[in-house]
Specification:
Elements: H1 4-42, H2 46-70, H3 72-83, H4 86-107, H5 114-120, H6 125-139, H7 142-157, H8 161-182, H9 194-216, H10 219-225, H11 234-265, H12 271-307, H13 311-338, H14 340-345, H15 351-366, H16 368-383, H17 388-402
Helix pairs in contact: 1-2, 1-8, 1-12, 1-13, 2-4, 2-6, 2-7, 2-11, 2-12, 3-4, 3-7, 3-12, 4-7, 5-6, 6-9, 7-8, 7-9, 8-9, 11-17, 12-13, 12-15, 12-16, 13-15, 13-16
């Protein structure tokens, strides 16, 4: 006999899956995109694929503070949505857009610093040259990326995750097509290799942002949620900055530490080690990006229920999110161990790279459950607006244990 508790639990799972399903699909599309980029460049050479992976990580590190700050748009809009204050929802999206443009302007001088950055990391000259080109091209579109994050988080918060999924798949298709034209020089286009992959990424990003904007500013959404109120508002901007800066600092600390580890620490062991690590990381994306999608849904639900005065439901949805993410990531870890040689061999035929990459996949499998725990519960804290303490704890851990160890 089905009890009331079982019905409530089933309803919680269904609610989370309905919201997280499209965001998981969105993150899965980004994962597939990373795979396709790496696979298409690996057909040119291991060095080219490694250059794009390394440079993409460093470029992401420079925009990670802004990205982490913009994730709070989800929190603030979700809480307003839960209270029934629809007018505030649209105003917060504009505060996010204005702050995105400001943070992007601060980052722009770094665009010209690609070559000295990778030379400092000790990468061989040809690799550093390819990395610098990819880095500069991708980072030059950081404003588009941050605005895309704002629009996507806003749509998730107002319960329109399907719009985000549609934009993500359009991004995937446009990037694959652009890669085919610009990496290999098909249909009369120039054969640009790594540079072509960077421009393809930017083209796809513009497509995604344009589609998200079309949804956000459509009559159906803009009229209901006051999206046309574009003016900067001091109190709202202050709230976004107050809650967003610790979140941005947390993401920046984590991403920057990872980028330094993968490019500077691993770089000391040579190109083979970097190639193996790069290919291993493609599979890491398979495990944690869908969990990030679940985390985005948890952020929205926690914010929504706190706004509605139901902290008990907010806590419960966080636990359900961890159960889903944990089960998925444990399955990924088992898959990594069982098929490690075949997985790395899908990218390269170099036996040294395959052997090292397979060993790295075993290491990655060990911490899958703990990664799921971090991703989901940190997202829940973000939904509650609690960003300061997690930022301090994570910053200390990644900069002492991961890099210092």
């Amino acid at each position: 006999m089905t009890t009331q508790l079982q019905i409530e639990r089933r309803g919680a799972v269904v609610e989370l899956l309905k919201l997280s399903g499209p965001t998981i699909a969105q993150m899965a599309s980004y994962t597939v995109l990373q795979f396709i980029d790496t696979k298409m460049l690996a057909a040119v050479g291991d060095l080219e694929a490694t250059a794009a992976g390394n440079a993409g990580g460093i470029a992401f590190a420079f925009i990670s503070f802004g990205l982490g700050t913009m994730l709070i748009v989800n929190t603030l809009v979700s809480q307003s949505f839960g209270k029934g204050d629809h007018a505030a929802c649209g105003r917060y999206v504009w505060q996010g857009i204005w702050l995105s443009l400001l943070l992007s302007a601060i980052v722009m001088p770094v665009v010209a610093m690609g070559r000295p950055i990778f030379a400092w990391m000790g990468h061989e000259p040809r690799l550093a040259s390819e990395e610098a080109a990819f880095f500069s091209i991708c980072l030059s579109f950081c404003a588009v990326k941050l605005v895309s994050v704002v629009l996507g988080q806003y749509l998730i918060a107002i319960n329109r995750p399907n719009c985000v999924m549609i934009a993500a798949f359009a991004c995937l298709v446009s990037c694959v097509c652009s890669n085919w034209l610009l990496i290999y020089g098909n249909w009369g286009f120039p054969k640009l290799g790594v540079t072509g992959a960077a421009w393809s990424t930017n083209i796809a990003l513009c497509v995604e942002t344009g589609i998200l904007a079309a949804f956000v500013f459509s009559k159906r959404i803009s009229g209901r949620y006051n999206v046309l109120d574009w003016r900067p508002r001091r109190a709202m901007m202050r709230t976004l900055i107050k809650v967003g800066i610790p979140s941005g600092a947390q993401i920046a600390a984590e991403v920057t530490a990872w980028s330094l580890f993968m490019n500077w620490v691993i770089g000391q062991f040579g190109t083979v080690a970097m190639s193996a690590n790069n290919y291993m990381f493609r599979y890491m994306l398979v495990s944690f990006m869908p969990a990030v999608g679940i985390g985005s849904a948890v952020t929205a639900l926690v914010g929504r229920y706190i706004g509605a005065g139901r902290a008990d439901l907010a806590i419960h949805r966080a636990h359900v999110g961890f159960a889903l993410a944990g089960a998925y990531m444990l399955a990924c870890g088992a898959f990594f161990v069982m098929f490690r040689y075949a997985l790395i061999g899908a990218f390269t035929t170099d036996p040294a790279v395959i052997e090292l990459g397979a060993a790295l996949l075993i290491c990655a499998a060990v911490y899958q459950l703990f990664d799921a725990m971090y991703l989901v519960y940190n997202s829940a804290l973000r939904g509650a607006g609690d960003t300061f303490v997690p930022a301090i704890v994570l910053g200390l851990l990644v900069w002492t244990i991961m890099l210092g160890g």
